[in-house]
Design goal:
Blueprint: H1 8-31, E1 37-47, E2 51-52, E3 55-56, E4 58-61, E5 71-79, H2 88-95, E6 101-104, H3 105-108, H4 115-140, E7 149-152, H5 163-174, E8 188-191, E9 194-195, E10 201-202, H6 207-216, E11 221-225, H7 229-235, E12 241-245, H8 248-260
Helix pairs in contact: 4-5, 6-7
Organism: Streptomyces mobaraensis (Streptoverticillium mobaraense)
InterPro entries: Ribosomal_Su5_D2-typ_SF, Ribsml_uS5_D2-typ_fold_subgr
Protein name: Lon proteolytic domain-containing protein
């Protein structure tokens, strides 16, 4: 008696099973293959009116520096390193977290640059930011850089985003609020923004994460570049007041208003 052939559906099932094996293996491989992303999270905050790594952040010579109260905190973000292997499960788990941001790798680490070159670029950006902060602060106070010398030190933190807070810190050290009081009004103020020598405040990256770092470290007010109000608002913790600023003059006026109980714009 001849053997009967297996049903057609059975042959198709076996064929699909055989085909599924390499597909499944491909999916598993893809899931754990490195992807071109970097994951960032809230980083350090540093009071520019105080010390960092055992050294004053702001040192003044050629003029008397005021004793200040309150804090002016610059903020940072921390990103995974240039050689970190970010996989699909990590991207998927962090994509919807408010305290994480998934960013294209090349937006943080320029292609074709070594780790050393990237670090040198960040240090150079910080140096330029510090120079601009000194010039903007002295210009605001109508003081000559030939008579007043200011040096800034922030250890191993790089990039240009501390420019605004450096500028305000210098102003507070030299002049306070201009009326005999502290520019901070005794508060803990945080903020971010690049600075041009003419006092213009520019946008920065990672604002949504920086407001979280500021709230975590006790700030009640956050100065944010005006164009980034919406971005900052989306990530701001409850109780943190966001104050938009476009230039140094506006930032100083806002801090004076907060100290005196006056009207101050909010995001």
């Amino acid at each position: 008696m001849p053997l009967s052939s297996p049903p057609a559906w059975s042959r198709r099932t076996r064929a699909l099973a055989v085909c599924a094996v390499p597909v499944l293996a491909l999916l598993v491989t893809a899931a754990f293959a490195p992807l071109p992303f970097t994951i960032a999270r809230p980083g350090w905050t540093v009071d520019v009116l105080g010390d960092h790594q055992g050294k004053p952040v702001i040192t003044v010579s050629g003029a008397e520096a005021r004793r200040t109260s309150g804090q002016l905190r610059m903020v940072s973000i921390i990103a995974t390193g240039p050689d970190a292997e970010i996989t699909l499960p990590e991207v998927a788990s962090d994509w919807f977290r408010t305290d994480r941001t998934v960013m294209p790798h090349d937006s943080v680490f320029p292609p074709g640059k070594s780790d050393k070159e990237t670090e040198e670029r960040n240090v150079e950006e910080m140096r330029k930011s510090q120079d601009s902060a000194v010039r903007a602060a002295l210009r605001h106070l109508h003081r000559s850089p030939s008579g007043v010398k200011v040096s800034l030190s922030l250890g191993d933190i790089g990039g240009p985003s501390a420019g605004l807070m450096f500028t305000l810190g210098i102003i507070d050290k030299l002049d306070g609020d201009g009326r005999g009081g502290d520019l901070t009004g005794g508060r803990t103020i945080a903020g971010t923004g690049t600075i041009d020598p003419d006092g213009t405040v520019g946008p920065v990256g990672g604002v949504g994460l920086k407001v979280q770092a500021a709230g975590r470290d006790g700030a009640g007010v956050f100065l944010v570049p005006k164009a980034q109000c919406a971005e900052a608002s989306a990530g701001a913790p409850s109780g943190l007041r966001l104050v938009p600023v476009s230039d140094v003059k506006g930032a100083v006026e806002a801090l004076r208003g907060l100290a005196s109980g006056g009207r101050v714009p909010s995001c």
